Amino acid sequence: MPVLLYSDKAHMRKICFHIQKGGVGKTSVTGNVAALLAREGKKTLVVDCDPQANLSSWLCTKKPEYDIASVFTGQADAEAAIQQIGGHLSILPVISIGSGLKQWAETELVRSPRALEFFISDLEKLNFDYALFDCSPSLSLLERSVISCMDELINPLSAEFFSIDGVESFANELHHIERSNRITIKNDKIVLNLLNRSFTRHRAFLEELEKLRYRIFVIPQDSRIAECQIARKSLADFAPKAKSLPFFMELVHSIMEEQEK
Ligand SMILES: Nc1ncnc2c1ncn2[C@@H]1O[C@H](COP(=O)(O)OP(=O)(O)OP(=O)(O)O)[C@@H](O)[C@H]1O
Ligand SMILES: [Mg+2]
Fold first, then answer.
1. Which of 25, 34, 160, 179 could make a disulfide contact with 193, Cβ separation 3.0–4.6 Å?
2. What is the H or E stretch that residue 137 is in?
């Protein structure tokens, strides 16, 4: 019998909460959804692909020796760079100061268009159920390369007038990525973050959004979300009674149900 180093079981589901707009909660949603998937017993990896390193500063329990750029440049393999955060949750971080990620993305990535594909196929050998990717608010070559390797893209939005334009322009960009790579990527969910139902304009925005083709998952404004980041904990660990937690759970259950179908 050959010895299996890694399990050959289920496929690792790759999800990115992304939109080309800043400050809408991409990082907050990614980290908290990942922590909840891990609490549900799913082996979950978060991959910080944003040179701002917000996700890493929030969730890393120790200063990283290696980061995602070390993996791309061949200084470390992914296993050496991954940190276990606790339970079933792990992170492949970015080092906030001095990481070569931005430089690598702007120089080497152009010359190695399949780099992300190879990187993700290495992650797939590590037996994770889910890998959630956090990117910076842009659609440069790095974000496009990450997107082209995903099973699912979920768009986080805040309740602002221009957000609908942002969703439409993201859908166009995604079709372009799908066409040029001859792939299809699931994109049927919107997370409407930072919603305050006491604002008429927020309720009106939600009504507009409901006319589109997406399933809408609402996350309300909740100061505990910002506070858990200062405490360097996930929302579920920091404030198990937070009002936004059941809303995150609804999203997590929907993601898990689809995986199990
Ligand atoms: N539902 C919420 N209620 C209250 N504050 C929130 C909520 N979601 C996110 N925040 C806060 O809003 C700020 C922006 O969130 P976050 O960093 O997750 O956005 P982002 O889209 O990742 O930003 P960037 O585009 O810079 O990467 C953070 O301070 C975060 O704590
Ligand atoms: Mg972010």
1. 25
2. none
Phi-psi region of 166 (alpha: psi -120 to 50; beta: other; left: phi over 0): alpha
**Ligand 2 center to 7 CA (angstroms):** 32
DSSP per residue, 10-42? SPPEEEEE--S-TTSSHHHHHHHHHHHHHHTT-
User: In the chain, where are the structural domains located?
Assistant: 13-254
Burial 93-122 (b: 16+ CB within 10 A, else e): bbbbeebbbbebbeeebeeeeebbeebbee
Domain covering 13-254 assigned CATH 3.30.70.20 in the classification: no
Q: Which residues line ligand 1 (CB under 6 A)?
A: 22-28, 50, 52, 54, 136-137, 193-194, 219, 221-223, 225-226, 229, 244
pLDDT in tens, 144-160: 999 999 999 999 999 99
